[in-house]
Specification:
- The protein has 140 residues and is mainly beta.
- The strands form 2 sheets. It has a 7-stranded antiparallel β-sheet with strand order 4-3-8-7-6-1-10, with no helix packed on it. Strands 5-2-9 form a 3-stranded antiparallel β-sheet, with no helix packed on it.
- A hairpin with an 8-residue loop joins strand 6 and strand 7.
């Protein structure tokens, strides 16, 4: 599956992460990230999380009408013999610098993905945010 996202966070934030959960499960996730802003780079990761970081979006304190974009690949979401992995490429601004992000993550569960929750930190997505899902398996 592939998610294509153009979104902006509400609330009082410069930028925010998009978080992914599968089948409403809130345990068993891990992720890594790498980002750069033209003058430096940083990386990190975490395990035993309640979600995967899946992208970065622009916040409401940044210039008006600027949205962060992400392409999120969900690999083998219907396979029940291995964990579901995710990779993502994002671009956003935080009001002072433009950043590019690479994310990877895993849902440590062999269940087929039946639902995807998209969460923007502690704030909502603003009107005009777009989420497109590609690659759905045909129903029987």
């Amino acid at each position: 599956l592939q998610l294509r996202i153009a979104a902006r966070a509400g609330g009082s934030t410069n930028s925010d992460n998009i978080r992914l959960r599968f089948n409403s499960d809130i345990t068993g996730y891990a992720y890594h990230y790498l980002y750069g802003d033209g003058s430096g780079v940083a990386s990190g990761g975490s395990s035993n999380r309640a979600e995967i970081l899946g992208g970065r979006i622009t916040g409401s304190l940044s210039s008006a009408d600027i949205f962060g974009v992400s392409v999120v690949d969900i690999l083998d979401p219907f396979e029940t013999t291995k964990n579901t992995t995710v990779r993502s490429f994002s671009g956003a601004t935080d009001g002072t610098s433009n950043t590019v992000w690479l994310f990877s993550g895993v849902w440590i569960d062999t269940s087929a993905v039946t639902s995807i929750d998209l969460i923007s930190g502690d704030v909502d997505f603003v009107s005009g945010s777009r989420f497109s899902l590609y690659g759905l398996k045909a129903s029987a």
